[in-house]
Structure formats: C-alpha cells, structure tokens
Amino acid sequence: MTRRWRIALLLAAIAAVWAANHWRYWWAPAYQKQMVDQPCPDDPAADPLAVPGDVFGICVHRADNRRLAAAGLRPELVFYGDSIVGDWDELQPGLFGRDWVNRGIGGHSSAALLPRFRQDVIALRPRAVLIEAGINDVIGRGGLIGPAEYLANIESLIDLAQANGIAVIVATMPPVERFPTRPRLAPYPRIEQLNTALREMAARRGAVLADFHAALVGPDGKTPRPGLSLDGVHPSAQAYALLEPVVRRAQAALPARPAEQS
Asked: How far, in Å, CA of 87 to CA of 85, rounded?
C-alpha cells in the first residue's frame, strides 16, 4: 500500500469517527432545535416544568407572571434561586402569592438564573429580590465553573436588580451534611468559601444579608442541626420556619422606597 493510500484511509477513518459522534446534531429530531416565536405552550393544562428543551425555565413561571400583571400586583419581595427557595412554598403553604412571590426552580445553577431574571423579577417591579444560589454550582450541575465565575454570576444579578431600582437581599447557602449524588464530595470547605465571599459581596454592594447558613447550622459549624434537612441538602419544614424570620428581618432592613423617605 502506497503512502498516499495510507493517508487517504486514515483521513477516511477520522471522518467516520467524527460522523459517528456528530450525526445526531444534524439529523436526529431531538437535536434539531431552533428559535420559535412562542416557546412556551399556551395550553393552561400543560405542565410548565415539562416543556421540552426549556433548560433555563423560561416557561415555568410565565403563567403566574401574567396573573400578577393582569391583577396589577407588585410583590414586595421575589424569592429567586434554586430548589432551596423553590421548594419553600410547598412546605409553608400560604406564605407566597402576593407580597412574597416564589421564582425558584430546582436544579438551577447561578448561570441558569441570568436568562430569566428580566421576566421573573424585573418585569414584576418588586420592591426587592432575594437572590439565593450555589449548591448546584458546587456540585457542577450547571457545567464547569469556578468560584470566580459563580461570584460573577451573583454580582451580575445584583447589577441587574439595582440598575432597575430593585433592592437586593443576598442569601448564604444553607449548611449541607452530604450530597446524595456526590457522596465523596465534602460540602463544607467550598460552601464556607463561597458564603464568606457572599457576605463580603453583600456588604460591598449595599445589599442586605439573609444568613441562611447561620440560622440552620449545628454546633459543629458545618452541618445542619438535627431535623432541619430532608436529605442532607434541602431544608425541612422546620428549617423553613426558622428561615422565615431571617428573611423578614432582612426585609425590614431594606432601604426605604423614595416615596417613603422623609
């Protein structure tokens, strides 16, 4: 076999391997996505949590956003983040709805919060937003990320809120005993590192701090007190009952609206 034929066969083999790994992006229906005029279903019976391809959750809260707009309601506080706030209204029914609005979505990393911030927070014209995220960043659920990128995402959310006249409450990550999906990953060192940075960021940016970690942590300073976690990560109903006054104190510490100032 001549050298030219060997090179040709090698190139053909490389092309075959590339095609085997990339064909689905061009031909498989599941990967043939494109921009559409109405990405969210209008069917009120459709499950907003099950819209195919809605990785940023833009459809999840759209119907409730429209409800608030149609009623002319402006919430006092929007809870914005991952499942730590997203699960709250299930365990404390009646707490959210008008003055407090929940816009958390389970599984969201800090990067996933940026695309929907305008529709789920700014468009509601609240007095304040509580920003909570980080657990999913620590376990890399949203993709490769470092502490600097995580903190930049949180700071970008603060930028967006303050540029639109919305006061900010920054929540620390609650204590975690273990990550069920990542049993070899020790939660405390990274959470402590990021919470220290969040406390500094809140002070530097003129935001109010809601220290979820301090409210739930046990005597060891690392893990939640007994009864305050469902699975080692997510707060229990008892934990949310302790976090509610933390948020109310933070809300009371917010700067007055311009019309309220003397």
From this structure: 6
Quickly tell me which residue has 């020790």 as its tokens: 186
CB within 8 A of 108, min separation 6: which ones? 57, 81, 82, 83, 133, 136, 142
1-47 confidence digits (pLDDT tens): 676 666 667 667 666 655 555 555 445 555 557 788 888 888 777 78
Indicate the pTM of the whole model.
0.85
Instruction: Please indicate, yes or no, if residue 27 is contained in any of the structural domains.
Output: no
Domain count, the chain: 1
Q: Residue 226 maps to which CATH number?
A: 3.40.50.1110
Neighbours of 251 (CB within 10 A): 19
Helix axes 147-163, 187-205, angle to 10 degrees: 30
Q: 3-state SS of the chain: helix, strand, coil percent to 5?
A: 45, 10, 40
